[in-house]
Amino acid sequence: MATELLERPEPIAPTEDESREAQETARRLAPYLGGPLRVQILGDGHPQDIVSIPASALRLLARILTEMAEGNALTLIPIHAELTTQQAADLLGVSRPFVVKRIEGGEIPSRRVGTHRRVRFQDVMEYKHRTDAARRKTLEALAAQAQELDMGY
Q1: Phi, psi (5° rounding) for residue 48?
Q2: Quick one: 52 and 95 in the same domain?
């Protein structure tokens, strides 16, 4: 299933009508996010079945609807999914050789499948969070230095 999710074409941004509908649905679901929620399924306008939606799934659905309401396209990837080096590079917004160097340097764990490397989505995201935090720290230090030097920023 993880492979199916990753191999699908690029997500398509929601239409304006879908964004409006998502915004309204998210607003109406908000009071129920403590979940679980029992939902009646209607088929052709007639009651068909009642299903229970767990609280965690309900919160995820609300997040998806909120992103759609803002016009954002989404891709859902399980945290245990394994990515190719190209998929990891696309996710990080860098080149595949950059990712390979990070793997070879031990910054991103991987495993071999034949001659190919696979990296866990979770490991890629942990790497991203570490580098983002380091960038923020450097930026804060530069901003503090600019203030000390009265550079007018």
Answers
A1: -115, -45
A2: no
